[in-house]
Structures are given as C-alpha cells and as structure tokens.
What does this fold into?
Amino acid sequence: MNIEFLHAPANTVAKVSLKPGEICTAEAGAMMAMSGNTQITTTTYKKSGRGILKGLKRMLAGESFFVNHFEAKNKEAELWLGAAISGDMMQYQLDNESLIVQGSSFLACEHQVEIDLGWQGFKSLLSGESIFWLNLKGSGKVIINAFGAIYPIEVDGEYIVDSGHIVAFNESLNFSITKAGSSWIQSILGGEGLVCKFNGQGTVWCQSHNPSSFGNHLTPELKPIKK
It folds into this structure.
C-alpha cells in the first residue's frame, strides 16, 4: 500500500495506491473517490471475521461502529480518503509495536493492523477528554489526521502537553493528569486547567488546534434555526 498526501497542510487528502489483493481498512465515511475495480466490504472488525465488541469499543473512543475494507481487484487501484475536519495528515509505520491514537484521529491502516481500545482510566476523564483511546497494534502503515498542523515532540524524561492537542503517542510513554500552573487558581485563571504530563522515552504527536476550544469559541456565534 502506497500513500501520498496532497493539499497539505490545511486541507490534506490521502491518495492510497493498492496492488491487486491489497486491502486498506478505513474509518466509515472517509472515502472520497476510488477506482472502479475497488471492492468495498463493510464490517465491525476484520474483513473476514466478526467483531461486534470491537465496533462497540471504537464507538467509545469516538470512532464509528463500522469500518470499510477497500480491496484492489485484478489490477492496481486508487483510493482517495478525506477527514471530517480540516487539517494535516501523517503516515506512521508500525513495526511490531503499539501506537495510542485519540478518538477521531484515526483515518485508515493496512488490513493486518489490529484496531483495539486503549483504556486510559479516569485520569483522562478528569482532563475533560475521552477516557478511551484507540490502540493500533502490530505491523503496517497507519494514516492519522489532525485539526490543523501535526508536529512531533520527542520526549526523553518529562514533558507537559495540553490534552486537547494530543493526536497520538508511543505506548512506551506513561502519562498523568496534573494542573498547568503552580496552583489551581493559576491554572484556572490562565485558561489551561489540567494537562498531561508524559514520562519516559518516545514521541507525542500534537495538533495545532484544539477541537473542544474551537467548538466553545464558535458556539456563541451560532444563531438558532427559526422554524
């Protein structure tokens, strides 16, 4: 599976080239266009297996219940994928490892990648974010999208990141929820509140915009629909 990103970074789309027999698993609704020789199979998990529990787990993480499997038949096929929000995309190559991805940032992956639920505990609930994350495991290519630009932060020791700006991180990192300032009053008045403190060695990928903050900023400007 070959991946090419176009129109980056503000309006990125992914052009996926599939050889005959290759399968790309994508989030429901992500397909923009595809070759006529591409076959679609919709399931809750793997193309050839059941996985209702897997689908329910993804819903808890903010993803859809169903996923689509796009397979190239007879000859090479093209698949165009787009995200629900405007921003950048990135490709990550899993090499017998795990990548933790926030809900709504998963777009697609090679068929052999396992998509499971990552439980982050009630410490995530306290941060105002989802307590469930997707855990992508195994080997293969993964496509992740963000709200705005994506930038990596290499952690070697300790690093603090606003929870709303986290896109993904290596499973080798541990994190805890803490206040942003030296006191709770400073944290609240400064508008930062609770943040994630990462410890260990690994990479955290962040997005330049916070979807929750954007929604809160936009809501007062929305006028109610007159019936």
Notes: The chain has four helices and 15 strands. The CA atoms of residues 24 and 110 lie 5 Å apart.
